[in-house]
Design goal:
It is a multi-pass membrane protein. InterPro entries: AA_transpt_TM. It contains 17 helices and 2 strands. By secondary structure, the chain is an all-alpha fold. The chain has one domain: Up-down Bundle (Amino acid/polyamine transporter I). Strands 1-2 form a two-stranded antiparallel sheet. About 45% of the residues are buried.
């Protein structure tokens, strides 16, 4: 404890909150670097004694009330990765070509899986250095900068804030996509039955359907306890599974010849393919919480391991859906494969409604994480009215996501934009930077001929290229669709 003499009160002041404010640290964090002009650290920087690092086993220090087995973790990984993105994969193949899309999907899936490996392995190493049982994504970024080269220490909080910011933007962007997705599917079914109706307007603008969702979205997302959302998650999984089964039934009816589809769509469409594919494949936001809650965490990235098994299944299913979806519908492929299903058949209509309800429930689960990050960072601004403040912030953010969805109702470019902007950073760039910083000044940390550095330079360059080209093409498509 740091004590100071207060000349006004003529007494020693050692209040914890005063100390934490002055030295800009949280109670659960270590004040590593000076903050008030001194060049001396407040205490010894962790992670500099390599031999001591090796003696600490973070897995033995994890105390979990309900640890998950390997099979439980695999199921949660599949649930977290198999989202609405699978319905957009045929559109990704439309922008890549039939055969090129197949190869590129497995290539991007392999790169995304490798980057998750890098993040988890680096997190394990940093847990040993910091002598902490587990670290989340943002905490791993902060720990890498704290235990890396001294010049990087001052950027540790910025690294944590950037990761949290992109997680929030990514997940709220997904929420916006969900609103567009739900509204378009409901509109198709409603238009079919409204064309002969005298009291229900036919061919209403999809934005009106989005606005009508607002009361339902607010009522669902005022639920603050994740436990009460679990039944909706189970129902959503059941609906998605049933809906995808019926969708495959339609895809395999009257399949055209592969010669009728373009094997390669052209270079000008590749950025859109990249954004859509990485949006669909990248489940990095759920990886660290799952690994941190495992009974046997060393099985997560082993061989074959939970991660490799789960991602192989996910990538294969996405490639399968994209290939046959584009083969079936060709140039008529929509932003969601369910929109291509027959409008005049009850079975096709039921799929649209089932998937719409499932994605609506998924909105609440997706909204939970960014809201939790935002609330943890702003709750200290409010005194006794914390409940009112939290509910107000929830409603405000829901309205913001609705307004963005109304402003950009074009599903395809919107998905590509979210993937290109957020997941390029979260899935490719940040894990590579974290590994370089964490191992920069460790003995042989970057490997022979600095191959770790050059490998990560390639991944960062690939991520930046995808971010710039994907964002540019998606924004242009959004603007052109409005015109």
């Amino acid at each position: 404890m740091i004590a100071e003499y207060d000349p006004k009160k003529k007494e020693v002041r050692n209040d914890l909150s005063d100390v934490m404010v002055k030295y800009k640290v949280d109670p659960i964090e270590i004040p590593v670097e000076q903050q008030a002009g001194s060049t001396l650290p407040l205490m010894e920087i962790p992670g500099r004694d390599v031999e001591a690092d090796e003696d600490y086993d973070p897995f033995k220090h994890r105390k979990l009330a309900h640890p998950t087995s390997d099979m439980d973790t695999l199921i949660h990984l599949l649930k977290g990765s198999l989202g609405s993105g699978i319905l957009a994969m045929p559109m990704a193949f439309l922008n890549a070509g039939l055969y090129f899309g197949l190869v590129a999907t497995f290539l991007i899936g392999g790169i995304c899986t490798y980057c998750v490996h890098v993040l988890v392995k680096t997190s394990h190493e940093l847990c040993r250095r910091m002598q902490k049982p587990s670290l989340g994504f943002a905490e791993t970024a902060e720990a890498a900068f704290l235990s890396g080269p001294p010049a990087m220490h001052k950027f540790s909080r910025l690294a944590k804030a950037l990761v949290n910011s992109f997680l929030v933007i990514d997940l709220l962007g997904c929420c916006c996509v969900y609103i567009v997705f739900v509204s378009k599917n409901i509109k198709q079914v409603a238009d079919f039955y409204a064309k002969d109706s005298e009291w229900f307007p036919h061919d209403m603008d999809v934005r009106i359907y989005m606005a009508l969702l607002l009361p339902l979205l607010i009522s669902m997302n005022l639920i603050r306890n994740l436990k009460y959302l679990a039944p909706f998650s189970m129902l959503a999984n059941l609906l998605v599974g049933t809906g995808m089964g019926i969708t495959f039934y339609y895809l395999f009816q009257d399949i055209p010849s592969v010669s009728e589809r373009k094997p390669f769509a052209g270079f000008n469409h590749l950025p859109t393919f990249f954004g859509t594919a990485i949006f669909a494949l990248e489940g990095i936001g759920v990886v660290m919480p799952l690994e941190n809650n495992m009974k046997t965490p060393h099985h997560f990235i082993g061989c074959p391991g939970v991660l490799n098994t789960g991602m192989f299944f996910v990538v294969s299913l996405y490639a399968f859906t994209g290939f046959f979806g584009y083969l079936k519908y060709g140039d008529m492929t929509s932003g969601s494969i369910t929109i291509n299903l027959p409008e005049d058949e009850v079975l096709g209509q039921s799929v649209k409604l089932m998937i719409a309800v499932a994605i609506f429930f998924t909105y609440s689960l997706q909204f939970y994480v960014p809201m939790d990050i935002i609330w943890r960072n702003v709750r200290h601004w409010f005194g006794a009215k914390k409940n009112l403040a939290e509910y107000s912030i929830r409603i405000f953010i829901i309205i913001i996501t609705l307004c963005i969805a109304i402003a950009i109702p074009n599903l395809g470019p919107f998905i590509s934009l979210v993937g290109a902007v957020c997941l390029s950073f979260l899935g490719l760039i940040f894990p590579s930077i974290i590994e370089v910083v964490a191992f920069w000044d460790r003995p042989n940390g970057l490997g022979r001929f600095n191959w770790v550095l050059w490998k990560n330079v390639f991944l960062i360059s690939f991520g930046i290229l995808g971010f710039l080209t994907g964002s540019y093409v998606s924004i242009i498509e959004i603007i052109e669709s409005k015109e």
